[in-house]
Amino acid sequence: MYVAVKGGEAAIANAHRLLADRRRGDRSLPALTIEQVIEQLALSVDRVMAEASLYDQSLAALAIRQSRGDMIEAIFLLRAYRTTLPRFGSSVPIDTAAMQIERRISATYKDLPGGQLLGPTFDYTHRLLDPTLLTDTPVDEGARKPAEGGSTMRVSEILAEEGLIEADGEMPEEHVAGDITREPMEFPMPRDLRLQALARGDEGFLLALGYSTQRGYGRTHPFTGEIRIGEVEVELDVPELGFAVSLGRIRVTECQMVNQFKGSAKAPPQFTRGYGLVFGQSERKAMSMSLVDRALRAGEFGDDIVAPAQDEEFVISHCDNVQATGFVEHLKLPHYVDFQAELDLVRRMRAEYEAKTARGHDDMKDAAE
Predict the structure, then answer these.
(1) What is the pLDDT of residue 142?
(2) Of 275, 224, 233, 232, which is closest to residue 254 (Cα–Cα)?
(3) Is 338 exposed, middle or buried (0-12, 13-18, 19+ CB in 10 A)?
């Protein structure tokens, strides 16, 4: 709120009370519990955790409840809380090859080594409202299946055996991963920071950009090499111990897009990669992220940069929904002084225009006489 604006404290306090009343809703209905949000609105919880960059289901559920289901407001709340937390160090890179998989699909190989695993998905459901969900209908418990463990070969490894895909990127041993939440952004960005920004970027914005690449605005001819969802172990390297300590397991979604590349003077024809990795079950976000990641690598492969999705500064500067919300919603705050100044300016310009128009009419009249 602007410091020039005084008063209004009582109105603001009343607005807060009204918000709390609307949040609770009809008192004859039981209050929504955090556990219910976690278990029954899991995909919303996953999105809030992903775009807030904080993996905590209870806090994400609390933010959703507090925001009355407004996803961006919930993300804002969780990010604000995240800024209060101390940072103890960086975890060891997670090993998604050793993921306990609950869903794994590929659009490139029908007989995928290790098999296709459909898992929980809307892909094969009819988009029809289900009236049985109006009541608490018992669910078939037989559908539950434990996640599959062990190392599972990736599609990219199959292509790599024939030398048909670019190699995995390697970072120098002395490379220290950056943190866009603590350091100002500078362009051009290294890919690790760019992927951080995309991972916490707005799903809808990235979806629109990914869609634009498929419609010809920076076409990269993508195939879904593999999507896998499951739990991975997070470890922290403790120098005093000399080995990594497990902090627990988190659920993530990983997507690798395989993109055709005709070759250049420096590289032979091959497939290239787009990569997405996000918290929880968020495959639409991971797919969109991987499409945009590949589009933003246009310069690496000598592609012409002709589309918004290929413009790093445009994409990264506008993909953050919390920043975008703040800039758009600040227009609701008082701008009385600014508006009065523009109002006076428009009035003077209008008076000058009318005076000039009147003189023109007089000149034309005199000429006619």
Answers:
(1) 62
(2) 275
(3) exposed
Under DSSP, the state recorded for 286 is: H
Report the distance separating Cα 144 and Cα 4, nearest Å: 59
**Contacts (Cβ under 8 Å, ≥6 apart) of 279:** 46, 49, 50, 55, 250, 251, 252, 253
Q: Which two tokens stand for residue 354?
A: 């009318």
Q: What is the DSSP letter of 241?
A: T
Token output for 249: 């397991």
- The DSSP annotation for 43-109 comes to HHHHHHHHHHT---HHHHHHHHHHTTT-HHHHHHHHHHHHTTS-----BPPP-GGG-EEEEEE-SS-
CA distance 241 to 238: 5
Residue of 226, 198, 165, 227 whose CA lies nearest to 295 = 198
The tokens 């459901």 sit on which residue? Answer: 125
Q: Are 292 and 315 contacting, i.e. CB atoms less than 8 angstroms apart?
A: yes
pLDDT value of position 151: 83
User: Half-sphere exposure of 140 toward its Cβ, with a 13 Å CA cutoff?
Assistant: 3
**At 357, is the secondary structure helix, strand, or coil?**
helix
In this prediction, the residues of the chain whose per-residue pLDDT falls under 50 are: 1-5
Q: Taking the chain, what is the end-to-end CA distance rounded to the nearest angstrom?
A: 61
Q: For residue 188, is the peptide bond before it cis, meaning its omega torsion is within 30 degrees of 0?
A: yes
Question: What does DSSP assign to residue 321?
Answer: H
| Dihedral angle of Cα 191, 193, 194, 199, to the nearest 10 degrees | 120
Query: What pLDDT does 174 receive?
Result: 79
pLDDT of residue 6: 53
| DSSP for residue 302 | T
Q: Quick check: pTM over 0.85?
A: yes
